[in-house]
Specification:
With about 500 residues, the chain is an alpha+beta fold. The chain is about 65% helix and about 10% strand. The protein has four domains: about 220 residues, no CATH class; about 110 residues, no CATH class; about 90 residues; about 35 residues. The strands form two sheets. Strands 1, 2, 3, 4, 5, 6 and 9 form a seven-stranded antiparallel sheet that branches. Strands 7-8 form a two-stranded antiparallel sheet. About 25% of the residues are buried.
Length: about 500
């Protein structure tokens, strides 16, 4: 039996390693295609590109493991079935669960390793790749300036353009805000067109502007004789102006990692638990504060209400008609105006607080999603194994033909369900746990069904089975149709005889 287990494990390890690297290569190409616009033309050194690919590869491991497990198990069992080796094992009295037992043990080890990788290594790589990608996007800022979006240069200048000619690099309707004095938008330069390029030494960003104006406001205010304040400002019109922005050194300048450490993707389970508890306490505290303020604004606007003695009783003689109808018209109008103002302010307060609670809830849900993701991706390896191995035993086709088609189908199905569940969880439509575990809950029963069919030597994946099934249905239909025609003909004969 040990020799048999070694043979099965040897047959499984080879396809597992091969499919893992194939899947990693495909996912890495998809990553490069996604960020190709941010990488091309930046003059990056090969060390920076190698570091980026290393972190990206590490970031893709939790996604590649489930697909490689599915494909490897499908190929292994398909090869054993195609070469009649699986049939020989069953003929020797070895059941399918016993044949799969060493592969199940390896899959459990892979799932546990994937969890520890997601909990310990993945947060570090997420932090590194987020920092590196942000730094790369800041390299050669003129390439990062996009239409209709503010681009920050050295945290001092903000540049916005309306149009950009991709062939000539001519920019239209340029706005430049100068925040160098940390006093707000006091200096604004607008131009009809211009060019923004980096100098040859990559130390300066040169903006050549045409047909524009420069506006500058001053914080100092003077009081004239009439007592009115005046706020001096200057305006300069130009036909051509050159503005030089000093960049932060030559080459790639890495951003401080502290900027991204608050992201949920850069935390492990322990850190996520601490942040979740802290955010939940703040949410509950804000909820109680909102309830108290709402109760006070609606029911306790009169401060003297709380000062009255609750044991003191007063007798009121109310008229038969409504008290409101007994009031003068001016008093009625005043009460209506006060009521409308109070209702509007309360509605505005509830609406703004509701938006605040919604944003806080989404921020908490983001941490819960990352907490569940570390477990769900690891469990997906286990689920995909119990889909791939039984399918391979049923299909009995090895190689990269049919297994690849089936694996891609199930992986796309899993990916669509996972993305949909995560989106519902992010929008607070579902609980984060339900959204992240939805795909596993759907595919796990399918794996159990396929395992049962494979154990009982089912022929559900055999085309002859479905051909014979439809032939039986067709023949039964023809028989029933013939009996119906004969019965109808008999009834018509009886009517003619009568």
């Amino acid at each position: 039996m040990k020799t048999l287990y070694r043979f099965i494990i040897k047959s499984y390890i080879g396809p597992l390693v091969m499919t893992f690297f194939i899947v990693m290569f495909i996912l890495l190409m998809q990553f490069l295609w996604k960020y190709i616009d941010d990488l091309v033309g930046k003059g990056l050194e090969w060390k920076v590109i190698a570091e980026l690919l290393l972190y990206a590869s590490s970031n893709l491991v939790p996604m590649a493991l489930p697909l490689s497990t599915l494909l490897a198990s499908l190929m292994t069992m398909g090869n054993l079935g195609e070469n009649n080796e699986l049939l020989a094992m069953k003929s020797a009295g070895i059941s399918l669960p016993r044949i799969l037992s060493p592969l199940i043990f390896i899959t459990i080890l892979i799932s546990i390793s994937a969890f520890f990788f997601s909990n310990n290594v993945l947060p570090y790589t997420n932090l590194k790749i987020s920092t590196l990608l942000y730094s790369v996007k800041q390299q050669k800022p003129e390439l990062a300036i996009k239409e209709g979006v503010f681009t920050t240069i050295n945290d001092v200048y903000s540049i916005k353009i309306a149009e950009k000619n991709q062939k000539t690099s001519l920019m239209r309707r340029i706005m430049i805000y100068d925040h160098s004095k940390n006093e707000g938008n006091l200096v604004i330069t607008s131009a009809d067109s211009g060019y923004i390029k980096v100098s040859n030494d990559e130390k300066r960003l040169i903006a050549t502007l045409y047909s524009g104006n420069t506006y500058e406001e001053r914080l100092e205010s003077a009081t004239n004789k009439s007592g009115n304040r005046s706020y001096p400002s200057t305006s300069q019109k130009f036909q051509e102006q050159v503005i030089v922005f000093e960049l932060q050194g030559k080459g790639l300048q890495k951003t401080d990692e502290e900027l991204f450490k608050s992201s949920a993707q850069t935390m492990n389970l322990h850190q996520l638990d601490i942040v979740k508890d802290s955010l939940s306490k703040q949410y509950r505290s804000r909820e109680k504060s909102f309830q108290h303020n709402l109760h006070y604004s609606v029911f306790q606007r009169n401060k003297n209400v709380n000062k009255q003695d609750s044991l003191h009783k007063k007798m009121f003689l109310l008229p038969e008609d409504s008290l409101f109808n007994k009031l003068p018209n001016l008093e009625k109008q005043r009460i209506i105006d006060v009521a409308i103002t109070s209702a509007r302010s309360t509605k505005s307060f509830i609406s703004s607080t509701s938006d605040e609670f919604y944003s806080k809830g989404k921020y908490i849900a983001r941490h819960k999603i990352e907490w569940n993701r570390k477990f769900s991706l690891s469990f997906a390896c286990f689920v995909f194994f119990f889909i791939g191995a039984p399918l391979g035993a049923i299909i009995r086709k090895g190689g990269l033909g049919m297994p690849v088609v089936v694996s891609v189908f199930f992986f796309v199905l899993y990916y669509i369900i996972t993305i949909s569940g995560e989106k519902f969880a992010r929008e607070l439509i579902w609980q984060p746990a339900a959204g992240m575990w939805l795909s596993s809950f759907i595919l796990l029963p399918l794996g159990a069904f396929l395992s049962y069919k494979a154990t009982t030597d089912s022929v559900i994946m055999n085309s002859d089975f479905y051909t014979d099934f439809f032939k039986k249905i067709s023949s039964n239909y023809k028989k029933l149709h013939g009996k119906f025609i004969g019965l109808k003909f008999t009834k018509s004969q009886v009517r003619l005889n009568k």
